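Quick one, T. Sequence first:
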Amino acid sequence: MIKVSIDSGPLTSGHSVRGVGAYTRELIRALERETRLRKATARQGLKIEAVDFEKVDLSTYDLMHFTYFNPFFLTLPFNKPAKTIVTIHDTIPLIYPNQYPPGIRGLFKFKIQKFLLNKVDGIITPSETSKKDVVRFLGVPAGKIRVIYEAPREVFRRLEIRDQSLVGIRKKYNLPSSFVLYVGDVNYNKNILGLADSCKIAKIPLVIVGKQAVSIDVDFAHLENQPFKHFLEKYGKDTSILRLGYVLDEDLVALYNLASVYCQPSFYEGFGLSVLEAMACGLPVVCSKTQALVEIAEDAALFADPKKPEDLARAITKILKNKKTKKLFVKKGFERAKMFSWVKTARETIDFYKSVYGE
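Structure tokens:
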């Protein structure tokens, strides 16, 4: 019996409403379901416990799973009481050092983090793209890394057009009849200003979902937030661009179903979970032609150059104006989203636990 602890700290921190929190929450749920199933079929080989690593004695576990990694903060243990696995979602701060400057303290911590990372027993990344980045920027041997894809949750599905919840959500948020939807953060690599410019060219309203989009405590002294500052200066009072902030899942499902197009305009991503959520809801997707998004979406999205707003606008317009094109990408999106599941994620993660532990 392998006793595994998973760090639940991101569920009670600022990560709780962001990608790291969603990953941690869904992974824990999926692993608990899978281990219950294995116990019922006499195939149980491990015990999963979600604990806050900062509040418990970890010496009682056989394996620890850290669910996120920050290159410029000390997120890994100096002393390893057990086998250790860490999930690295992306290395974006290392890819764009000018936009995410670490400072002297950050550089010092980066050296420590890099040293500690090479002592861990296994690394999980959500894409082949992130795996290559970890090898390139952190000097980790490729053989230590396992790519395990994430997945859209079951709550994300297509709703009937007459579903009363759709009527209610349209009224609640005062939504236009047709709009482009974006879900996520608003820092540099997300390219929010470029997306807004694209929607202006395409002459279609934009709806942005994400806590940071309406946050009043954004520190604009940080370079990573400067593009959002420029976005607010240009479009902060524009009534055709709605910033809804954080919304509950049941509202988000309806928003995906009400939107005309989903657009992920990022300069770079480590995965692209919102893309799969949109596809699962039957929403056609326009993506930046960048490595991870191409890897995740394959031919189920229409791609464009994120550095050219007119190119994104062209792709958005093509979906809006051509019914056959829209229907095609809705169909392809449905099929692509079905290839990802948290059951599969849990099973592959359990297999990796056993491999790292040596069983």
